[in-house]
Write a structure and sequence with these properties.
Elements (H helix, E strand, L loop, with lengths): L2 H10 L3 E2 L19 H30 L6 H5 L2 H34 L5 H9 L6 H12 L4 H8 L8 H25 L3 H9 L4 H29 L3 H6 L10 H8 L4 H26 L6 E2 L1
Helix pairs in contact: 1-9, 4-8, 4-10, 4-12, 6-8, 8-10, 9-10, 10-13, 12-13
Length: about 300
């Protein structure tokens, strides 16, 4: 779609403009009016509860970071246990993320923009791993792809053994992390105003041009945010991985599994790996909030 056609599409949806949400609420103080006792009590309650929650979450994390042996961090990072765990976590999580984006994006688009029978059921099934215990996910994957299962026997005859291999790590991470991406991308696609697409179509834009110039750019923040959350969930996966892929150093032992093993033999390595996950998780969440904060809010006049 040319720049002239884009300008026409924007003018066609001019009645839709971004509006600032009205500031209101039980604790909002209107200009020119004093703060009532109820409002003051509400603010104290919110501040106290928020402080307790913040302390409850922060205290264990700060206690962990305070135990990091900074004088031996580099030596610990150079041990085979830590290096293999970092390498496997990076490799498996990136492969899982690629699979999630490749197959999850069309699914999210269809769920976000389409209407068809059974849509709610499909959404529920796809989001089930969000609430499913990881141990249940691992057992389910083992019963589906294990060597003694019908599908596993077929794969074994083809020379493809899945369980207790790196492929099992990737499948476990994909199983538990895909719903995070699909849900975020679906919401992003669903939030695009239909009037905007109709106006572009009226101006002669094709389906490909509409997707490249309108749908893609508007949904990109949600897609990126979902990808970040999906990758973070894949990196931190433990329960499904240890049941379906095992805990074999250098083969299937990712960072969470290495922490579990190192607590019995090398506490410093466990602390360093845990600190890496804490810092990376905080960074990922912060990036997610910065990215997903750019939302489109259009309301008719």
């Amino acid at each position: 779609m040319s720049s002239m056609e884009q300008d026409k599409a924007r003018r066609a949806v001019k009645p839709y403009r971004t509006q600032e949400r009205p500031r209101s609420g039980p604790f909002y103080q209107q200009p020119g009016r004093g703060l009532s006792w109820g409002g003051l009590a509400g603010r104290v309650l919110v501040a106290g509860a928020g402080g307790l929650c913040l302390a409850f979450i922060s205290l264990p994390l700060l206690a962990l970071l305070g135990r990091v042996p900074f004088d031996t961090v580099w030596a610990t990072l150079g041990t085979p246990l830590v290096l293999d765990a970092l390498r496997l976590s990076a490799l498996s999580s990136l492969v899982s993320l690629g699979l999630i984006i490749l197959f999850g994006t069309p699914v999210a688009y269809g769920l976000g923009r389409g209407q068809f029978p059974g849509k709610r059921v499909i959404e529920t099934v796809l989001e089930l791993p969000l609430v499913l215990p990881p141990a249940v996910a691992g057992v389910a994957l083992l019963f589906a792809f294990g060597r003694r299962t019908p599908l596993g026997e077929v794969l074994h005859d083809l020379g493809l053994d899945v369980a207790f291999t790196l492929a099992a790590v990737v499948l476990a991470q994909t199983f538990v992390a895909a719903p995070f991406y699909i849900k975020a991308a679906r919401v992003a696609f669903q939030g695009i105003p239909r009037e905007l697409l109709e106006a572009a179509a009226v101006q002669g834009a094709g389906a490909g041009a509409i997707f490249r110039h309108i749908i893609g750019p508007l949904a990109l923040p949600g897609i990126v945010g979902g990808a970040i959350m999906g990758w973070a969930r894949a990196v931190g996966e433990f329960g499904a991985t240890i049941l379906f892929a095992g805990n074999f150093p250098g083969r299937t032992q990712t960072m969470p599994l290495a922490i579990y093993l190192a607590l019995e033999s090398n506490v410093n390595a466990a602390i360093v790996l845990a600190a890496i996950l804490v810092v990376s998780s905080f960074s990922v969440l912060l990036i997610f909030k910065l990215v997903s904060g750019r939302s489109l809010d259009v309301t008719p006049d």
